[in-house]
């Protein structure tokens, strides 16, 4: 029992394509890519100090209350 050759991998790939179809595999690849991008972005955001994060992290305020707070200052 040795390792699988490229012919075995080609047969496995062909069977996977036949079972799942290209649309499902393309969608799964896109979902996986977006998840990896989101993870990388999250890792970069964690390196910033809390003072450098934007106001979008506080989503409990509406646009009106933000304007009132800005005018009060």
Main structural class: mainly alpha
Global outline: elongated
Strand content: under 5%
- Low-confidence runs (pLDDT<50, min 5 residues)? none
By DSSP (H or I, 4+ residues per run), the number of helices equals 3
What does the average pLDDT come to?
A: 78
Computed over alpha carbons, the radius of gyration is 24 Å
Helix content: 55-70%
Helix/strand order: HHH
Through-space gap between termini: 75 Å
Number of strands: 0
Task: Explain what you see.
With 73 residues, this protein is mainly alpha-helical. The protein has a domain of 44 residues.
Topology record:
Elements lengths: L5 H15 L1 H25 L16 H10 L1
Short structural description:
This protein is an all-alpha fold and 73 residues long. It is built from three helices and no strands. It has a domain at 1-44.
Kindly list the characteristics that best describe this protein:
73 residues, mainly alpha, 3 helices, elongated
């Amino acid at each position: 029992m040795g390792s699988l050759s490229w012919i075995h991998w080609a047969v496995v790939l062909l069977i996977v394509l036949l079972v799942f179809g290209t649309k499902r595999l393309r969608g799964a690849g896109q979902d996986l890519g977006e998840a990896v991008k989101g993870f990388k972005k999250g890792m970069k955001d964690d390196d910033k100090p809390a003072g450098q994060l934007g106001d979008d992290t506080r989503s409990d305020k509406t646009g009106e209350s933000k304007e009132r707070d800005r005018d009060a200052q």
